[in-house]
Amino acid sequence: MARRTGRPSYLLDKADVRRGRTARFAAVAGAIALVTALLGGLVGYQLGRPDATEAAIANIKEADAKRDAQQITELIGTARRVRDQVAPVLAAIKTETTGGGAPDAAKARQWQEVMRQAAEPFADPPSGTTATNVARGGLRGAVQQASLAVDAYALAAGVPAAQRAALLDVTARQAAEAATIWSVAATQLDQISVDAGQGHQHVFLDTDPHGGALTPDGAAEGTGG
Fold this sequence. Notes:
Oligomer: single chain
Helix content: over 70%
Distance between the termini: 100 Å
Number of strands: 0
Strand content: under 5%
Order of helices and strands: HHHHH
Structural class: mainly alpha
């Protein structure tokens, strides 16, 4: 019976060398893959992380949004208070200028004081976003126009009867213009309130819908924010 023999030694040496090379290659490849993965993760983190400038910009925007929301809340409150002061004056002017009676100087002085008080909240306005500044500026402009209407009425109370009609006509037109300006500002205030998440806030005057002034939409107060 013939003796079994193994593979020749020169074949074993070559096989061992090939296995060693394969093992080293696999180790090196694994190390490269691990380093690549780590580097990729680091690069992705660095790219995804906002830099100092971006973080600063984000903080500024957040602070501006909070400031503007607070200003809108305060402006809504101011608009309601001023409206309650101005609306009766404009309504009375409409009555006085269409009733045919003589202007009352005492009423004129009383209304001038009311308008002075109504203008006080807008004397030193804060700086806000453009949209909020537009709403505030519109309300201020409406108060100024209403003040001019009162001043014209006061002038009519101190002139001869022959000149009153022209001054009272100017008074009525200025009062109507004040109501129109207010309606535009109130519409802007309503929009920025919705945009700020506070819902619809309809701070409008009770005016003639045929007089050219804007009117509130049909949305319920506080909805839509």
